[in-house]
């Protein structure tokens, strides 16, 4: 049998990283406690709607993260779990990582936003290890996916070499099983259905349903008219 041809989409098409973060910010609700993972998720802090109150939590022991600092606001001692400098809102609190993980494991975080290298059509996530690359360890990722009430993934739909990252089954080491609820990529917004499959909810400006189909190796479900992402 001929070898299956991998997806090869133009790099940079669709939403950029800030636009992905801005779209995810629309999922926030008033009163939510939210954990932001490393990478694109941290950008969500810059796009929280002004008419709601959301409290951002970092597993290294900070509750009440504000937007990224300007050059004048940078404090090298004030960082998030990804070691990026951050700001603190009025009323914020600092505590040990042990207390922070107690909050996570106790299911007191309403929404967790994570990056991923792969997501399967069953909602499995792989986001901590790439074979043959040195990593320090899983960190808090397993605690977050095991304890979160709701997980949204911010990721690129395809890798730099054009291979799909939304798969039937993950090929990389798994972080958590059947835990992802929604995915926002440069191409689309998708819901992971309980029975399995990626349901297409919205597509990025300039992107066609066919583009998303070609870029998705897992089961893609398309029903009715698909709206364009509004950001």
TrEMBL record:
**Species whose genome carries this gene:** Arcicella aquatica
Q: Which InterPro entries match?
A: 3-oxoacid_CoA-transf_B (IPR012791), CoA_trans_fam_I (IPR004165), CoA_transf_AS (IPR004164), NagB/RpiA_transferase-like (IPR037171)
Any stretches that span the bilayer, and where are they? none
Q: Which domain of life is it from?
A: Bacteria
Q: Which family does it belong to?
A: Belongs to the 3-oxoacid CoA-transferase subunit B family.
Q: Report the protein name in the record.
A: 3-oxoacid CoA-transferase subunit B
Coiled coil (residue ranges): none
| UniProt keyword list | Transferase
């Amino acid at each position: 049998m001929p070898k299956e041809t991998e997806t090869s989409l133009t790099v940079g098409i669709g939403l950029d990283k800030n636009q992905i973060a801005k779209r995810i910010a629309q999922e926030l609700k008033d009163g939510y406690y939210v954990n932001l993972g490393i990478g694109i998720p941290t950008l969500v802090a810059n796009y929280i709607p002004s008419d709601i109150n959301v409290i951002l939590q970092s597993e290294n022991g900070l509750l009440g993260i504000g937007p990224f600092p300007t050059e004048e606001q940078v404090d090298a001692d004030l960082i998030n779990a990804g070691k990026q400098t951050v700001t603190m809102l009025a009323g914020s609190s600092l505590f040990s990582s042990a207390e922070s993980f107690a909050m996570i494991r106790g299911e007191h975080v309403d929404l967790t936003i994570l990056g991923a290298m792969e997501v399967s059509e069953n909602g499995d996530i792989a986001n901590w290890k790439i074979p043959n690359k040195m990593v320090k360890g899983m960190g808090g990722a397993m605690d977050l996916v095991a304890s979160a009430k709701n997980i949204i993934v911010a990721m690129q739909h395809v890798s730099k070499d054009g291979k799909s990252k939304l798969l039937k089954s993950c090929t990389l080491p798994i972080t958590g099983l059947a835990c992802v609820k929604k995915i926002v990529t440069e191409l689309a917004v998708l819901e992971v259905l309980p029975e399995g499959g990626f349901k297409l909810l919205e597509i990025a400006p300039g992107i066609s349903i066919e583009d998303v189909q070609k870029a998705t190796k897992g089961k893609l479900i398309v029903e009715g008219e698909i709206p364009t992402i509004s950001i």
